[in-house]
Amino acid sequence: MRNIKFKSSDKMQAQFAAALRANVDNYFKEKAISPKGNWGMTLKSATMLAIYLLPFLLILFVPMSAWLVLPLVVIMGIGKAGVGMGVMHDAAHGSYSRKRWVNDLMSANMYLLGANVFNWQVQHNVLHHTYTNIEGMDGDIASRGPIRLSEHAPALKIHRYQHWYAFFLYGLMTLSKLVKDFTQLHDFNKWGLTRGQRRNPAMEVVKLVVFKAAYLFAAIGLPLMMTNFNAWQVLAGFFIMHWVTGVILSIVFQLAHVVEGVEQPLEKSEGIIENDWIVHELQTTADFARDNRFLGWYTGGLNFQIEHHLFPHICHVHYRHIAPIVERTANEYGYPYIVKPTFINALASHVQRLKELGTA
What is the pLDDT, as a whole number, of residue 1? Predict the structure, then answer.
């Protein structure tokens, strides 16, 4: 893995970074509020977990036909995505609460989604947040077979059609993580990232196996044991639930980093990105649908991705309030602040970007 550093000889960038941090800090000082979560986070956590788990309990304990199960597994998929975006995500960043044990507890909801907390913290918190949109470092733009998300990756003939089929493949995101977590953890152990996070590589492998087995037993084993559905019906419901979750999560993530106007920079010299990290994040991230309160609530503020990337230690319940501060400061110093006004605008921009990447 490459070692990349952010360096800028432009003193204005350092001044901007300092001013931006000061302006956001002053907001919390003036309001006399904590940058962490509030009672709204507790209520949202209970709501999202209920949307995910209550339909599952109904399936297990209330006899019903397969046709009645179908809308329930779709609701489970919606709730599962909501738990990931609106509960686990903040906790894994340490922004859910000032108390570490609360963050650890709420980030453990990742296991309910079939994924691994440690893998997420390395791949997302460390790699994606540090090296956003950098080819070979940020796994979120890594080209995966028929999908090309990086302009620096090799282009194949099939990619010219990716704006048609990409959304179906997005639905395989969480299903692929059931297996990918094993290969990913192997890479983290090999690259020294696991020990770099002060974790024991062997223990992380054991935890991964145990929690994966527990999830599969609960999600597949219990319905086989406690209901009259046969194996293919249970597996079909499992697939539909994961597919719904994968589509939601993938689209929300892509609308922040793979849209028109967002850059995918390369090193100007070996191992060096010639920008302050804060400027780099502004160039590689976009907000969308900032006025859509329901979307902001459901996605855990991930439509305010600029604010999230710049201040991941701040809980998403505050993003709506600090976004104007970030935008105003960026404008004052002449740095980009990319925002798509609505969800539809952002989605159309992502489709256009898929076309551009597919015909490169």
Answer: 67
